[in-house]
């Protein structure tokens, strides 16, 4: 399916708790484009979830991966990070934290599983997938997207042959998807980034960040976006299997509670501030993905016992704009009212 044949309302690919077949399928079945955030999934699990999505809907969906990140193992920095986690482990009755046996999944195996799953769209963040890889995927019939946080990244992605560029503004929840300059990429707002990418590129631009209702959709379209991706608002729909503590934190958060933090993963990500983000603010941390793997037991245990102090509460700056309860289809329809056809 060609990219321009897809609906203009997309769900941002969210990893972790939101990486759910039920949620992705509900968005696609409801008239949008659901996307599976597969960056942390084992290859076999990607195939299983994709099969579950397809069993629930015959509508197109996407799968997103993180491009491989260059990083050096730093056991001294990792041990210091583990020491900072230890008191919180104790509060939850967990054993002392230890160095993870594995820090990340094999990217090539993930990509092979994604290809085998046959989504309509394969998207990438945190890097340029490259000319050869993009060409190979397009030759197999996939629409291929890359993520840019600045014009220079968009131009590189266009040169690699992607079908469209996702313009990730500063407001977006979750991890930063940039790859030039700092590991976090540029910190440009969506309203400034989208028109600059639209003017610089010859391919469609999909707006991401700070879009939570029909007004945001209309604004993105007015700036030249060919589609929009919405993440945070979908975290609160009925089909999202969010832990009660995470959901309660999102419902209670105010505008000034949004923060950009490296505390949980070692790479800047936007979410609701909590005890971990505050107490690790400004602390030197080992590079991503080392903290991400090291903090996973704490985060998972905290979600089970309902302690939001130790959960990575990823959410964008527009969180307070739209916390209306309902189904994924309800939200897709509400967002679509802002799109002029």
UniProtKB/TrEMBL annotation:
CDD domains referenced in this protein's UniProt entry, alphabetically: NPD_like
Catalyzed reaction equations: 3 propionate 3-nitronate + 3 O2 + H2O = 3 3-oxopropanoate + 2 nitrate + nitrite + H2O2 + 3 H(+)
Record key words, sorted: Detoxification, Flavoprotein, FMN, Monooxygenase, Oxidoreductase
- Which InterPro entries does the UniProt entry name for this protein? Aldolase_TIM (IPR013785), NMO (IPR004136)
Any single GO molecular-function term of the entry would be: oxidoreductase activity
Give the protein's cofactors: FMN
- Record bears the keyword Flavoprotein: yes
Tell me the first and last residues of the signal peptide: none
Instruction: Determine if Transcription is one of this entry's keywords.
Output: no
Q: Which protein family is named in the record? A: Belongs to the nitronate monooxygenase family. NMO class I subfamily.
Protein's recorded name: Propionate 3-nitronate monooxygenase
Taxonomy of the source species: Bacteria, Pseudomonadati, Pseudomonadota, Betaproteobacteria, Burkholderiales
């Amino acid at each position: 399916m060609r990219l321009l044949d897809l609906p203009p309302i997309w769900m941002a690919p969210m990893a972790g708790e939101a990486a759910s077949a039920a949620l992705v399928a509900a968005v696609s079945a409801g008239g949008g484009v659901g996307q599976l955030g597969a960056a942390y999934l084992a290859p076999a699990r990607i195939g299983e979830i994709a099969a579950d999505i397809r069993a629930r809907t015959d509508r197109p969906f996407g799968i997103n991966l993180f491009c491989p990140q260059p990083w050096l193992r730093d056991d001294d920095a990792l041990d210091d990070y583990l020491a900072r986690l230890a008191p919180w482990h104790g509060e939850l009755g967990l054993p002392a934290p230890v160095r993870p046996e594995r820090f990340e999944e094999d990217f090539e195996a993930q990509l092979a599983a994604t290809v085998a799953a046959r989504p309509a769209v394969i998207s990438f963040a945190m890097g340029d997938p490259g000319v050869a890889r993009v060409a190979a995927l397009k030759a197999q019939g996939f629409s291929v997207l890359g993520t840019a946080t600045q014009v220079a990244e968009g131009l590189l992605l266009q040169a690699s042959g992607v079908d469209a560029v996702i313009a990730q503004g500063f407001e977006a929840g979750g991890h930063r998807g940039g790859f030039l300059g700092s590991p976090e990429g540029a910190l440009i707002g969506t309203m400034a980034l989208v028109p600059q990418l639209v003017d610089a590129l010859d391919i469609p631009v999909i707006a991401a960040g700070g879009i939570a209702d029909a007004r945001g959709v209309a604004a993105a379209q007015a700036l030249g976006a060919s589609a929009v991706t919405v993440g945070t608002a979908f975290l609160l729909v009925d089909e999202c299997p969010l832990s009660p503590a995470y959901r309660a934190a999102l419902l209670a958060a105010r505008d000034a509670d949004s923060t950009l933090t490296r505390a949980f993963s070692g790479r800047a990500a936007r979410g609701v501030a909590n005890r971990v983000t505050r107490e690790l603010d400004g602390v030197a941390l080992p590079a991503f993905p080392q903290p991400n793997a090291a903090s996973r037991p704490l985060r998972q245990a905290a979600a089970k016992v309902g302690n939001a102090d130790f959960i990575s509460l990823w959410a964008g700056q527009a969180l307070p704009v739209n916390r209306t309860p309902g189904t994924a289809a309800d939200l897709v329809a509400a967002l679509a009212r802002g799109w002029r056809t």
